[in-house]
Amino acid sequence: MQIEKIIEKQREYFKTGATKDVAFRLQALKKLERAIRDSESKINNALKADLNKSEFETYMTETGMALSELSYVRRHLKKWVRTRHVMSPMAQFHASSFVVPEPYGVTLVMSPWNYPFMLCIEPLIGAISAGNCCILKPSNYSPATSAVIYDIVCENFASEYITVIQGGRKENAELLEQRFDYIFFTGSINVGKLVMEKASRNLTPVTLELGGKSPCIVDKTANLELTAKRLVFGKYLNAGQTCVAPDYLLVHSSVKDELMQYLKAYIKKYFGTDPISNDDYPKIINEKHFNRINRLITGEKIILGGKSNLEKLKIEPTILDNISAESPVMHEEIFGPVLPVITFETIDDAEDFIGVREKPLALYLFTTDRNVERRILKNLSFGGGCINDTIIHLASSRMGFGGIGGSGMGSYHGKLSFDTFSHYKSIVKKYNWIDLPIRYHPYTHTKEKLLRLFLK
User: Fold this and answer.
1) Residue 42 banded pLDDT, cuts 50, 70, 90
2) Stretch 87-112: mean pLDDT
3) Could you say which of 38, 108, 205, 280 would form a disulfide bridge with 54 (CB–CB 3.0 to 4.6 Å)?
4) Residues classed as catalytic
5) pLDDT per residue over 387-410, tens digit each?
């Protein structure tokens, strides 16, 4: 009942029109930015408690990205909210046509635990910039970060404008029984399907930021040492608990052995000989996921890593060799520090292997062959990705980020965040000084000739 009352209050507040004022939106964004800066040490401590993230990694992947997005949106918002005039068709003479962005109303943002601050705050930025009220539901698996988000919001915004609902499955289920004007969900594929099912009852539009098995292709022309550095960074960032982490490696058989040596060297260089004791190496979020990842390793050929520590909830950066399509590790998103390695002989083989599977959220290609680059971009469908790097494509406010097919729908970041949380009204304003009779009865042959002239 409390959730219903919160939604009712937000609907009443939205009807006042306060959130539609551009100055109000800019002030809210400025207040959010200041609150994040003032709370940075609390955010660092929370992410250390939830995921053992270092301050550097927290700023690089969470706080810094949110602040960068806030800065970008604030600089461009006045331009985005303007009415956009378009040319009117000749058949509508004399008229003016224009498109007006308007907020949806009361929105719901459901965020995950792996980047619990950034993936909650960045959609909120979009909701605020578009003029909506918003209910945030951070993950119960990252309680320390959820508590900090709760404090930031409660101390800076009225609950009828923005509020945070804490809790677990009970609260999630209750929220999804309510009618919202827009739902933005980031999380697993299975829960995403449930969100879409619940939203469909009220015909509520949704953005689903999911995941899946994102491949990394390394062909025989790749710069192998640089490939290894960038692959180790992307795969083992946040202990592999990244929705766009390279999930598995497809490497040309002729360069596999050399690449493995580079991968081993850079894992050792970055994380040391005992990664579990490395205080900057993140932990697995909880025992449930710790056990799930270990089950995926069991019975496979481990050529590096494989050790784990339940007390610390850490699993070493691990590489699995001789993996087949039937291996258990290939049947689900790994979401952990485990890299299965599969070889291919021709780019046709790699393309076919990826093409028969669900469309991934990301794809990474390491090559210096422009023909291979063009071919992969043309023939394979995926949310986004990089050529000769990993992960960094999502760190730009100038490009959208999102999935396709089984990896999600919709996108956000920068202008696309504003677009996601906005409805664009198309308006034709007809002038009264002339009224062409062509559309009115009776329909004659002469009128038809004129109609064909106008509409060709």
Assistant:
1) very high
2) 93
3) 280
4) 209, 243
5) 999 999 999 999 999 999 999 999
The full set of domains in the chain, from first to last, is 2-210+405-424 (3.40.605.10), 215-394 (3.40.309.10)
What's the pLDDT at 439?
Answer: 86
Closest CA to 246 of 230, 255, 234, 233: 234
First to last CA, the chain: 57
Residues 6+ apart with CB under 8 A from 306: 297, 316, 318
| Largest separation between any pair of C-alpha atoms in the chain | 87
Cβ neighbours for 83, distance < 8 A, ≥ 6 positions apart: 98, 99, 100
Average pLDDT, the chain: 96
Once rounded to an integer, what is the mean pLDDT over residues 245-262? 98
Residues 345-360 have a mean pLDDT of 96
Please say if the pLDDT value at position 1 is more than 60. no
* pLDDT for the residue numbered 435: 86
Task: Give bridge partners of residue 96 from the DSSP assignment.
Answer: 429
Check: CB of residue 337 under 8 Å from CB of residue 318: yes
Encoded tokens for 190: 């299975």
pLDDT of residue 454: 81
Q: If DSSP states are collapsed to H, E and C, what string results for the chain?
A: CHHHHHHHHHHHHHHCCHHHCHHHHHHHHHHHHHHHHHCHHHHHHHHHHHHCCCHHHHHHHHHHHHHHHHHHHHHHHHHHCCCEEECCCHHHCCEEEEEEEEECCEEEEECCCCCCCHHHHHHHHHHHHHCCEEEEECCCCCHHHHHHHHHHHHHHCCCCCEEECCCCHHHHHHHHCCCCCEEEEECCHHHHHHHHHHHHCCCCCEEEECCCCCEEEECCCCCHHHHHHHHHHHHHHHHHCCCCCCCEEEEECCCHHHHHHHHHHHHHHHHCCCHHHCCCCCCCCCHHHHHHHHHHHCCCEEEECCCEECCCCEECCEEEECCCCCCHHHCCCCCCCEEEEEEECCHHHHHHHHHCCCCCCEEEEECCCHHHHHHHHHHCCCCEEEECCCCHHHCCCCCCECCCHHHEECCECCHHHHHHCEEEEEEEEECCCCCCHHHCCCCCHHHHHHHHHHHC
- Counted residue by residue, the chain has a size of 456
Q: Bridge-partner residues for 254, per DSSP?
A: none
Main-chain dihedrals φ then ψ at residue 132, nearest 5 degrees: -95, 165
Higher pLDDT, 177 or 92: 177
Residue that is written with structure tokens 């040391």 in the block:
272
pLDDT class for 314, splitting at 50, 70, 90?
very high
